[in-house]
Amino acid sequence: MYVAVAKQQSADLSTISGTIQNDILKEYAARGTYIYPPKLSMRIITDVFEWCSHELPKWNTISISGYHIREAGSTAVQEVAFTLANGKAYVQAALQKGLDINVFGKRLSFFFNAHNNLFEEVAKFRAARRIWAKMMRSLGATDEKAMMLRFHAQTADPLGGAYFIENLTDEMEANATALITQIDAMGSSISAIESGFMQEQIARSAYEYQQQIESGDKIIVGVNKFWSEEATMPPFKIDESIRIIQTEQLKALKEKRNNEQVNHCLQQIKIGAQGTANLMPLVIAAVENFCTLGEISDVLRGVFGEYK
Predict the structure, then answer these.
(1) What is the CATH number of domain 12-226?
(2) Which end of the chain has fewer CB within 10 Å, C or N?
(3) Residue 121 CA to chain centroid, in angstroms?
């Protein structure tokens, strides 16, 4: 949709920059907001990688997220290991599609959590950068920029060199690497997700953390601490006027658009999904002809099915 608007405004796509999160694996592992089976979702992601490498060279094609994994209850080690294992799966999928790691590797970014254990978090970020550089090199990257782990926020390394931090970083790297090795032995992140390994590990850590809180071993200070169990959440109200307006606008759009062209575009997506064609040009054509997100998703549901 963003590209369709850019084309409407005659923008030069080669100069457009931005980032999409586009990280589906963390959805299976931690959030549950997915539609299609993992391998077919990966196909969509690598199609985005491929299309953007030719059409949107300055676009960051994925933001690989550890944030949601940590928020679901993982430890810092698990956050690093599962996030980078997911990143490795994306890179491997892109390589299998014939993409150049030194090109698409520069467009990968990461989105991690930041808890209040300062030293552990510093060690986590430092270890993640080490592991990712080694991982990308092992997968064939030769350009230093393609080996760089880009966070949503970065600064210099002011604590580097301190014995405590260096020792903690080494320990974090070793533990996360061991967990990644365990995932590699399963086949990949996808296999670890399909078997429920990641989900079970995160759930267990979340449970153990909650037990520590209830036993008084951990003291939590922050906004959430002051929302007591006795307090009641304010009722969530839907503004009916907004719903009515949006529904009417959608109805008007469907009456005004060329529905013959809409059906043609949706049929092309179906044919593309059944084959191996890159889906991005087909989806963009559909959007430009005012196909809705729901209609496009439903076509893909019909071909890919839903993951339960």
Answers:
(1) 3.20.20.240
(2) C
(3) 21
